[in-house]
Amino acid sequence: MASHMQGPNVFYAVKLTGNFRYVDTRVVPKQTRPYPPLIEAVKEQPTYHFEYITGAIVGFWTPAYISGIGVAGYHIHFIDDMRQVGGHVFDYEMLDGTVEFAQQTEFELQLPQTTEFLRSDLTTPDMLDQIEAAEK
With 0-12 CB in 10 A as exposed, 13-18 as middle and 19+ as buried, what is 99? Predict the structure, then answer.
């Protein structure tokens, strides 16, 4: 996909539609309060391997300098044409189809204004390490 990019320092929306020899996904189970750290939540996530499946992979490329606000690199998800299976993609092989890219040069961040958010302690010293581990 990198051949479609003009450079790594802007955002890209990505969509791959077609036939896949395989798609490997995972899905983090629904969490309840008190919410565990990210690294704990992903430990029990089921993984799925789909073969010869038709669907779409959609997601974003995020520049490395945005790490901490977003996941640097590709963050993509799969959904099959029947809308029955999918998840966060960690590997795939596309047989045929279309690849669409849209360069995004604007980034807007809206923060919640709830009391819960405003008073929460969101400091996590190893957050980047947790994100990196969760994305593997």
Answer: middle
**Where along the chain do its domains lie?**
2-135
CATH architecture of 2-135: 2-Layer Sandwich (3.30)
CA nearest 132: which of 58, 57, 75?
A: 75
DSSP classification of residue 134 = H
Question: What are the tens digits of pLDDT across the range 6-37?
Answer: 889 999 999 999 999 999 999 998 999 888 88
| Predicted TM-score (pTM) of this structure | 0.82
Note the pLDDT tens digit of each residue in 51-84.
999 999 999 999 999 887 888 899 999 999 999 9
